[in-house]
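HOLO CASE FILE
Compound: 2-acetamido-2-deoxy-beta-D-glucopyranose
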Amino acid sequence: MTSSHFISSTSLVILLTFHLISTISESAVPSSQTFTYVNEGDFGDYVVEYDANYRALPPFSSPFQLCFYNTTPNAFTLALRMGTVRSESLMRWVWEANRGNPVKENATLKFGTDGNLVLADADGRVVWQTNTANKGVVGFQVLPTGNMVLHDGKGKFIWQSFDSPTDTLLVGQTLRAGGPSKLVSRFSAEKNADGPYSLVLEPKGLAMYYKSPNSARPMVYWTSSEWFTIDKGSLTNLTLTSNPDTDEGFLYYLTFDYFTTNPTSGSNRNMAFSRYNNTLSYLRLEIDGNLRFYTYNPNVQGAAWEVVYTFLDRDSMEGECQLPSRCGKFGLCEDNQCVACPTPNGLSGWSKDCDVKKVTSCKASDFGYYKLQGVDHFMIKYTRGDGPTKQTDCESKCTKDCKCMGYFYHTDGSRCWIAYDLRTLTRVGNSTHLAYIKSPNK
Ligand SMILES: *[C@@H]1O[C@H](CO)[C@@H](O)[C@H](O)[C@H]1NC(C)=O
Ligand SMILES: *[C@@H]1O[C@H](CO)[C@@H](O)[C@H](O)[C@H]1NC(C)=O
Ligand SMILES: *[C@@H]1O[C@H](CO)[C@@H](O)[C@H](O)[C@H]1NC(C)=O
Ligand SMILES: *[C@@H]1O[C@H](CO)[C@@H](O)[C@H](O)[C@H]1NC(C)=O
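Model generated. Tokens follow.
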């Protein structure tokens, strides 16, 4: 009895030791799979988004390829590109590792035996990494969906690029209440930094925000208000999917599949469709704050891309006047067009240079207000404002607040909005909607 017990526990120790050794060796990346790519050499020849220069790296899964690209000299972004040479169409950037934190010539992307993927500048400064050292990673792959993954021995993803979107959501990619819960626009075609717009997954739906340099709080300019059926609970996650319509046969939908809490349930909403397989599609929060679905059809030479739906558009539920910068720094928008420049002396013709006269003083005696009738600010449509409140109270709130550029007031309902940025005002043809724009006395 005793001796057999002794033997079995010894073999248990041996077994455990053996298991431990084999797990360690299993969890290391085979050296044949490791790589170091250096950002050096000639640029590629094909036309890519933002008129960038690029260097293609070996990881490729049609139509996705890992690249370094730059739009300003010696400031490179590690990114996934979508598009094939054969289609002879623009190639677009659908995922980025290091927006706003570029690397220089001779930077390296290294995948070591420890399973960590590290982007470092030539001087060794680590710019970006997956933080997956010694977490069981055995391999790296770019999948045909555009998801770049680090997986363990069982094929489970320890890290995936789908979990860190920038401004683009590919088919199969998910926004989650616990994060990643938003897309952030690009600053400009030339400057790869965060722009002022964001698309956020909120408890009751999607919302778009504009972040003005004048104010800490982003302003909402669009919400998906009635799209999702959520009674008591809240959204858990939302995935962009592509679904062939089996009845029609030749219709393919781009759909938001979503889950809610209380009770936990799943549902979906078709957002757009195309007449061909649209599995290779994405949702993009654009530089101008608009939201679009792009579909890539590699079989159409020279014109593989199609914009299948634009959210704020003359043909959509919401028009272009809702875009905060549709009419520049300060302009009046009507029927998707910029029609006037509001000045203290009335409306003048619109140009993209229209702007308010800056009030530099905080002293109430140094400025006044001029009135516009029948206009709304872009934030009004999707927010309730304060009130009921008296117009004089609304005005004194703005007067006391140095950063307030004007206030908006609806006389029926007595509601008040303080504006920290003006940008695009919309003509509403309702004389109860008033705007009071702060203006220097001289
Ligand atoms: C990059 O490294 C190579 C090889 O070490 C070197 O010859 C080259 O000058 C470096 N380029 C820059 C821009 O530093
Ligand atoms: C979304 O949430 C549901 C419910 O919690 C869960 O079952 C599902 O796996 C989630 N989907 C994704 C893609 O995370
Ligand atoms: C659509 O294309 C994807 C690959 O791009 C493929 O996996 C899928 O089976 C296709 N779906 C249909 C319905 O043909
Ligand atoms: C003006 O707007 C108010 C809501 O703010 C609405 O109740 C009213 O019907 C509108 N009037 C016209 C003429 O559109």
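CASE NOTES: The CA atoms of residues 388 and 414 lie 5 Å apart. The helical segments are 2-27, 391-400.
CLOSED: yes
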